[in-house]
Specification:
Blueprint (H helix, E strand, L loop, with lengths): L9 E4 L5 H12 L3 E6 L5 H9 L7 E5 L5 H14 L5 E4 L18 H16 L1 H6 L3 E5 L23 H22 L5 E6 L19 H11 L10 E3 L2 E2 L9 H18 L1
């Protein structure tokens, strides 16, 4: 997959302090573009900035920070970037976690994995829609093929009841994220392109499911940056496994299910406001 870039772009990469996020930010820099590198953990900010700026031209790296376990920080970052940016060429949503072994909730009252993997990127993306649309930009969202094993229980999305299993919790979060990616393509501004992708032949967030837990991520990072480039043909709203379009879970294709999820998510945003 290749792309021709005619001018310098600005690309926001979330989770730049994770392995895949850092590799992707480096690839953006290598292309000569400007990266806005989002950091989840403020304690990792200095080290991440130093490593990224070591290979970048002056002014090509901007660091921003928001803890995705705190929605107030996510909302503040969204407001700040929306005010600063008249246009944003691409947003690559990478920040993600594996589900903890035991039921865990954030200070906002949401199940931890669902908040970090779905609610936070959904809110940040929505805040940046005007800047992305102005640039005819792209949103590339890292999901997982495990989303197909997920289920959306609208009566208990935060898993306050019932049996807790990390696999099911993780799959639910990635299913919701994949549904959001499709909805963004169908109901967002016409100038915007949105795709979701499982970028590697192993499960990035769940090293226990693979033997090569230190596997290089260069190919995955290359793929994400290529998908974010305007010269790369993609199917708007599509789900990809690697560079190939793939069949998403049935709920991803259900406009009724996606509308219900959107209503639930928007109610949270309005309540917070």
């Amino acid at each position: 997959m290749s792309a021709t870039q005619s001018s310098t772009r600005t690309v926001l990469v979330t989770g730049a302090d994770t392995r895949l996020g850092f590799a992707t930010a480096q690839r953006v820099i290598a292309d000569g573009d400007t990266v806005i590198a989002h950091i989840l953990d403020k304690n990792a900010a200095d080290e991440t900035a130093e490593r990224l700026r070591a290979t970048a031209e002056p002014g090509r790296v901007r660091l921003v920070q928001a803890d995705f376990t705190r929605l107030a920080e996510v909302d503040e970052l969204g407001r700040t970037l929306a005010a600063d940016l008249t246009r944003l060429d691409a947003l690559i949503n990478i920040a993600s976690i594996a589900a903890p072994h035991a039921r865990t909730h954030t200070e906002d009252g949401h199940e931890l994995t669902f908040q970090v993997n779905y609610l936070a990127p959904q809110r940040l993306t929505m805040a940046l829609i005007p800047a992305l649309a102005a640039a005819h930009g792209r949103v590339v969202t890292v999901t997982s093929k495990l989303h197909a094993a997920g289920n959306i229980d609208y009566s208990d999305l935060d898993r306050n009841r019932g049996i807790y299993t990390p696999f099911a919790i993780y799959a639910q979060s990635k299913l919701a994220l994949t549904m959001f990616s499709r909805s963004l393509a169908e109901s967002g501004p016409g100038e915007l392109t949105s795709v979701s992708v499982h970028p590697a032949d192993f499960e990035i967030d769940l090293p226990q499911l693979r033997s090569h837990r230190a596997a290089p991520l260069d190919h995955a990072a290359d793929l994400l940056v290529d998908l974010s480039a305007p010269g790369t043909p993609v199917r708007n709203g599509g789900y990809y496994e690697g560079s190939e379009p793939a069949k998403a879970a049935a709920l991803v294709g259900s406009s009724r299910a996606r509308t219900r999820l959107a209503v639930w998510s928007n109610q949270l945003t309005h309540t917070a406001a």
